[in-house]
Design goal:
The complex is a heterodimer of chains A (236) and B (202). Chain A is an alpha/beta fold and 236 residues long. Chain A has two domains: 94 residues, Translation factors (Elongation Factor Tu (Ef-tu), domain 3, Beta Barrel), CATH 2.40.30; 115 residues, Rossmann fold. Helix content of chain A is 19%, strand content 32%. Chain A contains five helices and eleven strands. In chain A, the strands form two sheets. Chain A has a six-stranded antiparallel β-sheet, with helices on one face. Chain A has a five-stranded parallel β-sheet with strand order 9-8-7-10-11, sandwiched between helices. The two termini of chain A are 23 Å apart. Chain B has 202 residues and is mainly beta. Chain B has a single domain, classed as Sulfite Oxidase, Chain A, domain 2. Chain B is 8% helix and 30% strand. The longest helix of chain B is centred in the middle third of the chain and has 8 residues. Chain B starts with 23 loop residues before the first strand and ends in an 18-residue tail after the last helix. The chains are: A alpha/beta (236), B mainly beta (202). Chains A and B meet through strand 3, strand 4, strand 6, helix 5 and strand 11 of A and helix 3 of B.
Chain lengths: 236, 202
């Protein structure tokens, strides 16, 4: 199993918050101007570090939603009620604030922009996939990507409009959508998205990622062609 | 010290001295972070091999490993994603026991741990000897869950937890260091949480 060996790797930088908004409930989307930025590959992440007046720090990793060519770095973060960093970013941070970031980081959950990929995400797991989709648009290679996004309801799915416009399959467990009845993501959803030589990228909570990656393995993907990014209240 | 972030005060003022810098106490949770699908491994088909720069390349089946002198670890584990978990209890066998049989040669200085999935991670030999590393199959007195590396994982609790390879099947001793999976992907070759060796260059 080999990732992208020469994936860009950036050090600590100062980021200035340019805009914040709340695209779905319990979320904050930040657009950051990162000084002296190293461009990322779609799928990579940044670390955000907050420092208290007494020097105490808290840091968490967040996937990048923007494409590499975007002049700003876009993060879309789930606000966890007991979160220490996500509550600050959602409730306190405002345009003009400076925060420390480190990135881009990661060489495994990275799309090479040249080979076919099946992208499968649950909830906020769509964020790195949005970066992949936006990059594919810029490169005019959307044909390489097949996307499935899962959430409880459409209103809870970040980037739902953008995903739907890109032709993503949207699987909602609590409500029907079009001819698809409410239900968890299943092999019936994923099999039609299969193409030869795909690499699968699965991103979501630990339980979603476990279930979805097992679905993909059951479809016949060799485990070496399944890249998984798991996060959760504690792991993200 | 870095400039404070406007409006950030942090929640945790009482800092547990067992917490390495930049880590927080995750409490009773145990987050799962894995880059690949979890493999389904039947214990009866699992084995652990010690090879490379050793006098006697050796393998142990599930039953054979369970007949080795038992050893356990009680204490903290630290993940590079900044959570730490205290008062864990793992049981299995000390890596020292396996190395006593295999017999590292004079030039052995590093270890590559390999998982059933192909995941690899590299460690200095000194970090897996002297009672610092285990091959474990129990957590809290119960079989180690699949998502946490069951049936058997490596445990090197004094380093960040990506070094504790899940689903471990092979320890290969090497004369020279080579980067493993995360180490090729930007993470540190040693990963000492007390020195915050998270990424290459730290």
């Amino acid at each position: 199993m080999a990732g992208v060996a020469d994936a860009p790797r950036g050090g600590w930088r100062t980021a200035t918050v340019v805009t914040t908004d709340q695209p779905v409930a319990r979320a904050v989307r930040l657009r950051l101007d990162v000084a002296d930025r190293m461009d990322h590959l779609p799928g990579q992440h940044y670390v955000v570090r907050l420092t208290a007046p007494d020097g105490y720090t808290a840091q968490r990793s967040y996937s990048i939603a923007s494409a590499p060519g975007d002049p700003l770095v876009e993060l879309c973060i789930e606000r966890l009620d007991d979160g220490e960093v996500s509550t600050y970013l959602a409730d306190v941070a405002e345009p003009g604030d400076e925060i420390e970031v480190r990135g881009p980081i990661g060489g495994w959950f990275v799309w090479d922009c040249a080979t076919p990929a099946l992208l499968v995400a649950g909830g906020f797991g769509v964020v790195p996939l949005v970066s992949m989709l936006r990059t594919a648009h810029v490169l005019d290679r959307v044909d390489l990507l097949r996307v499935a996004a899962s959430a409880r309801t459409l209103a809870e799915l970040p980037y739902a409009d953008e995903l739907a416009a890109a032709g993503a399959l949207i699987a909602l467990s609590r409500e029907g959508r079009g001819i698809r009845p409410a239900g968890r993501l299943s092999d019936a959803d994923l099999v039609p998205l299969w193409e030869p030589d795909q690499t699968a990228y699965v991103c979501g909570s630990a339980s979603f990622a476990e279930a979805a990656s097992q679905l993909v393995v059951a479809m016949g993907f060799p485990t070496g062609r399944v890249r998984v990014e798991r996060f959760g209240p504690s792991g993200s | 010290m870095t400039t404070p972030t406007r409006g950030f005060f942090g929640r945790r003022r009482e800092r547990d001295p067992r917490l390495p810098p930049g880590q927080y106490d995750v409490g009773n949770d145990w987050p799962v972070l894995t880059a690949e699908p979890s493999p389904r491994i039947v214990p009866e088909t699992w084995s652990i091999t010690v090879d490379g720069k050793v006098a006697n390349p050796s393998s142990w089946t599930w039953d054979e490993a369970h007949k080795l002198p038992p050893s356990e670890y009680r204490g903290a584990i630290h993940c590079v994603t900044t959570w730490s978990k205290f008062d864990t209890w793992f049981a299995g066998v000390s890596v020292d026991t396996l190395l006593e049989v295999a017999g590292p040669t004079a030039e052995a200085a590093f270890v590559m741990a390999t998982s059933k999935t192909g995941y690899t991670t590299n460690l200095p030999l000194a970090d897996v000897t002297g009672g610092k590393a285990w091959v474990v199959w129990e957590f809290d007195g119960k079989p180690l869950p699949i998502e946490h590396g069951g049936p058997v994982r490596l445990l090197v609790p004094h380093l960040y937890f990506w070094k504790s390879a899940k689903w471990v099947t092979r320890l290969t001793l090497m004369a020279r260091d080579q980067p493993g999976f995360w180490e090729q992907n930007g993470y540190h070759d040693r990963g000492d949480p007390w020195r915050e060796q998270r990424y290459q260059g730290d």
